[in-house]
Amino acid sequence: xxxxxxxxxxxxxxxxxxxxxxxxxxxxxxxxxxxxxxxxxxxxxxxxxxxxxxxxxxxxxxxxxxxxxxxxxxxxxxxxxxxxxxxxxxxxxxxxxxxxxxxxxxxxxxxxxxxxxxxxxxxxxxxxxxxxxxxxxxxxxxxxxxxxxxxxxxxxxxxxxxxxxxxxxxxxxxxxxxxxxxxxxxxxxxxxxxxxxxxxxxxxxxxxxxxxxxxxxxxxxxxxxxxxxxxxxxxxxxxxxxxxxxxxxxxxxxxxxxxxxxxxxxxxxxxxxxxxxxxxxxxxxxxxxxxxxxxxxxxxxxxxxxxxxxxxxxxxxxxxxxxxxxxxxxxxxxxxxxxxxxxxxxxxxxxxxxxxxxxxxxxxxxxxxxxxxxxxxxxxxxxxxxxxxxxxxxxxxxxxxxxxxxxxxxxxxxxxxxxxxxx
Length: 423
Known about the structure:
The protein is α/β, with parallel strands linked by helices. It has 15 helices and 13 strands. Strands 1, 2, 3, 4, 5, 6, 7, 8 and 9 form a nine-stranded parallel β-sheet that branches. Strands 11-10-12-13 form a four-stranded parallel β-sheet, sandwiched between helices.
């Protein structure tokens, strides 16, 4: 079938995104109740979720994220020769039907470890990879999904910038329509270089070469990697392709305790990057501006013993997370236009109300098991839709049989932001 594709650029869309757990095991309703408010507290507008090729992320987990205004990137980290690729088309169709718009296929194909030794030794490993990527990418596109080219490890066994250029040329030769709709990914690792390392791309650092960076030059292995990838897409396609950044602030293969750079210094550098993406108008001078083509920049939301993560796996803020949350609270809220004379804006005495179903009164259910988590976050909990209508945000715990869609529409008409969680 012919492929009709386009990329919907969103003007002034917030870029701040986060990686969820590095597995596909935390997609229960209890997980959603725990983590959705925490992601909202960080100001997340994007989230990357890992998906097994054998089991879809539940719709009941995805829809509340989307309804809360958080764009979802589903990542299927396949190996190039994995037979599980044949199981992916039904997943792609389901994700598109549930409202997902972005899917990222495969994982670091420029690393030898992702391949069987005989496949890596092929004369043209890039061409072979595109032959594996293309069928799945076209199937995703046919379902209306935007395909994200997989992240490449900066540097690595097959130099990432060379791999990207060769891959784009292969796609241009095999499937130009797919190239026109492609989103490029890049790993914006902090490393142990200055945060502005490599800013300006190859135009500013023309002497950088694969596997060798002269002492007076800089390369793409840093947060400014987007400048280098944007230049490659311009050279191959004649225009810059949209891009997403992942693992921002991560040290990558670098040990943050080495070379005299302490964990505290690494934490401070990541906070500067978070600030720059969250409020670009107040970005620290050390952080270079991101190209206009960057749609999202993902940091690590969760991780134990990671100085660049915002929460531990139990949900407690890390030192970095606590600082960023405090910083976000200090950002001045733009003044709202006053209501017309004689009209008062609707009162919002409650910030967040969780509307429980009647069954939660009668004994232990999954609703009651998450109440301690909700109470610790300072939300209002109750059974009254009338009370819920007084809140800025309402989380409804129950399906349409308990709380009809008409009720949710009434709450939205009353000015509430509504998210449904169902078992």
